């Protein structure tokens, strides 16, 4: 009954269930997503998808956030914006489910809310629903599913479907069918990492589009598998033979929400690298270490991180974002790991490459066991040995941005200003920040972003 339980939960969720702290969590997720979308819209994969969407045409309902914003049908806007927001690897992450929920839930919810003329409260409620459903599905299949399947594209599709279904006011039966259609479209394989292909952005964009498609089809009477999650040939058992179905509905209440456990990224790379980056930055700052003081860096981590980001010789920007060796070296070389630290001139720096050769990745059995016991804990133990033989060690239990080491709303606003700088004038950036901060007072999302297109 897990699929129906999640459908019932989605239908029954009300804005009045959301505490002020949860409302702020949702706003922070929307703000962080929008920052990544606006800056990511300039990246090549995003531009290719924007051009494809523009070539199709159709009704102009929903904003595509580029340097010169334009509108498209809601599902196609969700595709373009979802892909753009995932192109920097600077977007949010729900650790336990290993899903970048913002990149699939928010573009679907925002695009559809613009088309429907939904209120800001409707948007916030739909985003909370999307995060809840997406996170629970991800937790049910991970970490084992993650070896082959990019969970943002697979489980994330359920999150976008829940958000879209909520905005369309689907009933329980329709929401079950919505989830059925979402699950049968779920996809996203990790093979693209081997050659740094653009597929990762497509996974997010397609998951956002597919959620809207599934919800709109269900509204018209299109049926889907009614036990898409728990069925013997359903999503969970297709993803892994170790699925934990109890995660789907365990402690399913309106007292605490998965969105309140969300993590945010201060560094523009795979989250599995963040604890090590945090440790290297702390050690360099605390001991006044320069990159030319460093002989070697040792990183102890879990097996999932070793599988995904142990890449000693990345050959392109995407490879660098998924290379723990590169990210640790970049932290030592530049003392920051922002979007700019992955540009070609930085990535080919000789000193950085020298440090990279002396970064060692070790799977620590204790850290691996702790990660499997508590999937929210992505820890790292880092040892730096200097050229003069000194040893410096730092253990990061929760990197900056995790709920236990939180990214404040003010820091989210600051990140927004940094990522959107040079794309929109400062006054429009501040208007966007104010709009998101006051969403609960917005009666309709229709034309809410029209000011971005004005000269």
CATH topology of the largest domain: 2-methylcitrate dehydratase PrpD
SSE pattern: HHHEEHHHHHHHHHEHHHHHEHEEHH
Q: Please provide the count of β strands.
A: 6
Largest sheet: 4 strands, mixed
Percentage of residues in strands:
5-15%
Shape: globular
| Strand-pairing-aware structural class | alpha+beta
Mean pLDDT level:
95
The total number of structural domains is 2
Q: Order of strands side by side in the largest beta sheet?
A: 4-3-5-6
Short synopsis of the structure:
The protein has 455 residues and is α+β, with helices and mostly antiparallel strands. The protein contains 20 helices and 6 strands. Strand 5 (380-386) and strand 6 (391-396) form a beta hairpin.
Write up what this structure looks like.
By secondary structure, the protein is α+β, with helices and mostly antiparallel strands. It has two domains: 260 residues, 2-methylcitrate dehydratase PrpD, CATH 1.10.4100.10; 126 residues, 60s Ribosomal Protein L30, Chain: A (2-Layer Sandwich), CATH 3.30.1330. The protein is 51% helix and 7% strand. It is built from 20 helices and six strands. The chain has a four-stranded mixed β-sheet. A two-stranded antiparallel sheet has the order 1-2. It is globular, with a radius of gyration of 21 Å. It starts with a helix and ends in an 18-residue tail after the last helix.
Structural key phrases:
4-stranded mixed β-sheet, two-stranded antiparallel ribbon, 60s Ribosomal Protein L30, Chain: A, 2-methylcitrate dehydratase PrpD, alpha+beta, 6 strands, 455 residues, 2 domains, 7% strand, 20 helices, single chain
């Amino acid at each position: 009954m897990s699929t129906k339980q999640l459908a019932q939960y989605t239908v029954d969720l009300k804005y009045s269930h959301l505490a002020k702290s949860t409302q702020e969590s949702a706003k922070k997720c929307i703000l962080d997503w929008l920052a990544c979308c606006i800056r990511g819209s300039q990246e090549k994969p995003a531009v290719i998808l924007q051009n494809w969407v523009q070539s199709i045409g159709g009704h102009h309902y929903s904003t595509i956030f580029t340097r010169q914003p334009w509108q498209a049908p809601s599902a196609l806007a969700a595709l373009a914006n979802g892909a753009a927001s995932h192109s920097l690897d600077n977007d949010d992450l729900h650790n336990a489910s290993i899903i970048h929920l913002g990149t699939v839930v928010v573009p679907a919810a925002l695009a559809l809310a613009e088309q429907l003329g939904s209120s800001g409260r409707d948007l916030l409620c739909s985003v909370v629903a999307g995060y809840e459903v997406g996170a629970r599905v991800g937790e049910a299949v991970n970490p084992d599913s993650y070896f082959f399947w990019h969970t943002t594209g697979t489980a994330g599709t359920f999150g976008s479907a829940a958000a879209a279904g909520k905005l369309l006011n689907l009933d329980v039966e329709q929401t079950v069918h919505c989830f059925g259609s979402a699950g049968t479209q779920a996809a996203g394989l990790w093979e693209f990492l081997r050659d740094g292909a653009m597929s990762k952005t497509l996974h997010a964009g397609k998951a956002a589009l597919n959620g809207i498609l599934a919800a709109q089809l269900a509204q018209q009477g299109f049926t889907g598998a009614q036990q898409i999650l728990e069925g013997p040939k359903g999503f969970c058992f297709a993803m892994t033979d170790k699925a934990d179905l109890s995660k789907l509905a365990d402690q399913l209440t309106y007292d605490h929400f998965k969105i309140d456990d969300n993590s945010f990224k201060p560094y523009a790379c795979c989250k599995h690298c963040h604890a090590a980056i945090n440790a290297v930055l702390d050690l360099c700052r605390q001991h006044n270490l320069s990159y030319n003081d460093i002989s070697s860096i040792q990183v102890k981590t879990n097996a999932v991180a070793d599988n995904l980001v142990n890449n000693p010789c990345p050959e392109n920007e995407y490879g660098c974002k998924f290379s723990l060796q590169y990210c640790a070296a970049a932290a030592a070389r530049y003392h920051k790991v922002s979007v700019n630290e992955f540009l070609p001139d930085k990535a080919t720096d000789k000193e950085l490459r020298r440090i990279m050769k002396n970064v060692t990745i070790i799977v620590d059995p204790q850290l691996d066991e702790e990660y499997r016991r508590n999937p929210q804990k992505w820890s790292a133990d880092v040892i730096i040995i200097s050229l003069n033989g000194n040893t410096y060690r730092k253990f990061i239990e929760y990197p900056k941005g995790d709920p236990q080491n939180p990214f404040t709303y003010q820091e989210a606003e600051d990140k927004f200003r940094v990522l959107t700088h040079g794309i929109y004038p400062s006054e429009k950036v501040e208007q966007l920040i104010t709009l998101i901060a006051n969403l609960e007072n917005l009666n309709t999302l229709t034309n809410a972003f029209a000011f971005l297109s004005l000269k």
